[in-house]
Amino acid sequence: MFKKLMAKFGVGAATVDLRLDQPAYRLGETVTGHIHIEGGNVEQRITELSVLLMMNARVKGQIVTRQVHSVQVAHSFKVLPKPYTVDIPVSFELPQGLAISSPSIQYGLQTKLDVEMALDPTDMDRVEVLPPEPVERVLNALNRLDLRQKPDSGGLTPYGQEFSFFTGQSLGIPLRELDVVFFSTPGEMRLLLELDLTVPGMLMGRQKEYKAELIVPQELLAAEKEEELSRFLLEKLREYAENPQAIPYVSMASYGQMHGGRSGMGGMIGGMAAGLLGGMLLGELMSDAGELAFGESGEESGGDEGGDDFDFGGFDDL
């Protein structure tokens, strides 16, 4: 009787451990593994065994935590006293539209054993979310140009996940910084760019920002084409940098209108979320981040630049 009472409070209760087949998966891939359960001091009835995909996002110094997916693995079974063990397979597809793992975005899988009338044993395991291969090839192509990602690159903005670069060795063009948001539709990939260019003839190396849309030819996104892709991107960046007045200007708000949304942040979400890297739950996350991070215009305000390790909740010990 005493053992049953203690098990209700988690002492001598069953334990659960998720064991993934690999530590990282691409968007759209199937996550696979098994859940190892060991019996405690007494028999326990299990109502449900589930796995929750949790995302932690740093948005201008604020931490937003959200469940982005859940999987019911099993329900209504018993776990016998030790030395009883059981391994239950688990598999699920990683949802499209998630932001990929970055210094500002982290993921964990919380395994939960729902024990009838008792404290529920849980387990938390870090998992890395990798980009789709075409996105990875563009990132690699930019890296070949010695465009290096900033420490806080890969953070969420009202318009999706944004990757920020600074120039390493000189490219022979007056490009200081580059921000990229990925948006894909069937058959094409669009890069929404913000170029920080040095304006010639101005004192103190004055800089000016330009926005542009760049459509990447599908054939350049194939495997073994990264060198050609790098050349294409360099040519476009040089074209924009040397003749900024000819850049086909695209505002983020108007882009939402062009693709079926309304103006402003809500339009971007409504019109672009389906093909936007980081678009899943974007509106909810931005709302939770509050006006300290983003005003109504969608422009970033001041605050902590982020880039530090996360320090919260069940992710602390991962």
UniProtKB/TrEMBL annotation:
<protein>
    <submittedName>
        <fullName>SpoOM family protein</fullName>
    </submittedName>
</protein>
<dbReference type="InterPro" id="IPR009776">
    <property type="entry name" value="Spore_0_M"/>
</dbReference>
<feature type="compositionally biased region" description="Acidic residues">
    <location>
        <begin position="297"/>
        <end position="318"/>
    </location>
</feature>
<dbReference type="Pfam" id="PF07070">
    <property type="entry name" value="Spo0M"/>
</dbReference>
<feature type="region of interest" description="Disordered">
    <location>
        <begin position="294"/>
        <end position="318"/>
    </location>
</feature>
